[in-house]
Amino acid sequence: MEFIHQIFSGLFSSSVIIALIVFSGRKYIDRYFASTLTQFEHDLSLIKAQHDIKFSILHEERAKQCRNLYLQIRKLESSLNTYTTIFQGPGWQEDNERFQNVLNERINLQEQIEDNRIYFTDEFCLELEAIYEKVETIVRRMEEAKLLQMRYEQGDMSVGSRPISIWREQNEEVLVGFRSLRRDLANQFRKLIGVEIG
């Protein structure tokens, strides 16, 4: 019986030793994983903070570019309004300064769009470039009105009141059509920079 008792006590002591080793090993592994997890969480929070800072800076830069583009569109609209206004006086067909201002503002806008293309999708850039077509149509129609007015002043009565009609149409296009386009783009800019549209 003593032999069985020694076997059991040997097994018991071996089991206790094994249990202590397993318990100690498990505690060590748990501490190791806990410290590794804590370090990983710390590293992850640093990466997140860096990402948030970079994203914030990018978002701020994009917002600045949206603002600059919008201001350039407003300048172009203003120069178009000056170019097409009915209150220009009798020498309106010889006035090239207004025409040149429109072209300069259009070129400035085109350069700004190209310089900032990386901030916007191709689809949005195409919407911005639609302004070019509208400006070209207005300029082409105004130049047509000027030529017709010169023909009328040279005695071609077949022209009639078409120059003034074209002129008024283009002024209306700037006051209504272009302004509507600018406002639509303003809403697009607001969406891009995360401003709620209400």
Radius of gyration: 37 Å
Report the CATH topology name of the domain at 61-193.
de novo design (two linked rop proteins)
Distance linking N and C termini:
91 Å
User: How many strands, which pairing sense, and closed or not: the largest β-sheet?
Assistant: none
Q: Uncertain spans, ≥5 residues at pLDDT below 50?
A: none
User: What global shape is seen?
Assistant: rod-shaped
Mean pLDDT: 84
Number of helices: 4
Helical proportion? over 70%
List the quaternary state of the chains: single chain
H/E order of the elements? HHHH
- How many distinct beta strands? 0
Structural class: mainly alpha
Give the class-level CATH name of the domain at 61-193: Mainly Alpha
Percentage of residues in strands = under 5%
Q: Judging by the overall fold, what is the CATH architecture of the domain at 61-193? A: Up-down Bundle
Fill in the keyword field for this structure.
single chain, de novo design (two linked rop proteins), about 200 residues
What is this structure's SSE topology?
Blueprint: H1 2-84, H2 97-115, H3 122-153, H4 162-193
Helix pairs in contact: 1-2, 1-4, 2-3, 3-4
Explain what the structure shows:
The protein has a domain at 61-193: de novo design (two linked rop proteins) (Up-down Bundle), CATH 1.20.1440. The chain is 84% helix and 0% strand. It contains four helices and no strands. Helix 2 packs antiparallel against helix 3. It is rod-shaped and about 140 Å long. The termini are far apart.
